[in-house]
Design goal:
By secondary structure, chain A is mainly alpha-helical. Chain A is built from 6 helices and 1 strand. Chain B is built from 7 helices and 1 strand. The N and C termini of chain B lie far apart (50 Å). Classes of the chains: A mainly alpha, B mainly alpha.
């Protein structure tokens, strides 16, 4: 029986299904690519805008402007400025010495001063 | 709905699948839709959906395409594309020895088989699947698939007897 089946399978193999016409290119590319491009463009615009905003903000708050201002304002009246990562990284890449100076200056503003009469440490020590 | 393990095929994989199984799938589609062009359209419709990455296919893509072709062919049949007469020039099969009558008889005999038997024969003989693979493709137990195949061969043997030199 198995032998009979094998011979018949071989016979069926003499028939070949007709080869269909080639597969056409899908037209869908034209529908998908504009969507992908639009998504990429919006991501690019969002990234660009946030970078521009961060740069502008750092120009308004930090860098040279702050350095000039601190020279005029007495040290005791300085309000601690938040350290911004982006301008600091930029400074580290461009001018490490200036970064060192900036960090020293910032540490004087940010860290508690124990030399002044009303310094945090003295107040705490009294309590 | 996509299931775990489902994936989208890239264009090269889809074209490879078409090259490997396209002719058998058109023959399969023609057992539902006798119009040759409509059967090709049905198969193209399935493969174009794969090319456009609209669908995710399971681990055994050939199983998916057989299912999809079947459904698309049934839809086409419902839309009234069934009753085209069998034209010798447009037979789904070609006989290596040029026996057009035998080719037409084979097509007719396949069309008369119950769907699940026809499916297994086409998968096994013209798509080159093993019975185990056909079982995975159809979702039926191996023993059931083997029985369907045996019954189908018996019926086809009977129908094609006049054309065979035993």
């Amino acid at each position: 029986m198995k032998n009979l089946d094998e011979r018949f399978e071989k016979y069926l193999g003499e028939f070949q299904p007709r080869r269909p016409r080639a597969l056409p290119e899908p037209a869908i590319h034209w529908q998908v690519w504009p969507r992908r491009l639009a998504a990429a463009a919006s991501i690019g615009i969002a990234l660009g805008a946030s970078l521009w905003f961060v740069r502008k903000k750092s120009e308004w708050n930090g860098g040279e402007v702050v350095a000039k201002d601190t020279a005029l304002i007495p040290e005791s009246k300085l309000v601690p400025q938040p350290l911004s990562l982006l301008p600091l990284t930029q400074l580290a890449l461009e001018n490490p010495e200036k970064l060192e100076a900036e960090l020293t200056k910032a540490s004087q503003r940010v860290l508690p001063d124990f030399r002044g009469r009303e310094s945090t440490l003295r107040v705490l020590a009294k309590e | 709905m996509a299931r775990l393990g489902d994936k989208k095929l890239n264009a090269a994989e889809v074209r490879h699948l078409y090259g490997q199984h396209g002719p058998a799938l058109v023959a399969y589609a023609r057992s539902f839709v006798t119009d040759a062009a409509a059967a090709e359209d049905v198969v193209h419709q399935v493969f174009l959906r794969l090319l456009s990455q609209e669908v995710e296919v399971p681990d055994v893509p050939v199983a998916y395409v057989y299912r999809a072709v079947r459904n698309a062919a049934l839809n086409a049949r419902r839309n009234g594309q069934r009753d085209a007469p069998l034209d010798p020039q447009l037979s789904a099969f070609k006989h290596r020895g040029g026996n057009m009558e035998a080719a037409l008889s084979l097509e007719k005999a396949l069309g008369e088989l119950p769907e699940e038997q026809r499916e297994v024969v086409i998968m096994r003989i013209w798509s080159g699947l093993t019975l185990e693979e056909a079982a995975v493709a159809t979702g039926a137990p191996l023993n059931t698939v083997a029985s369907r195949y045996r019954y189908a061969l018996e019926k086809l043997r009977e129908k094609l007897r006049p054309y065979r030199k035993e």
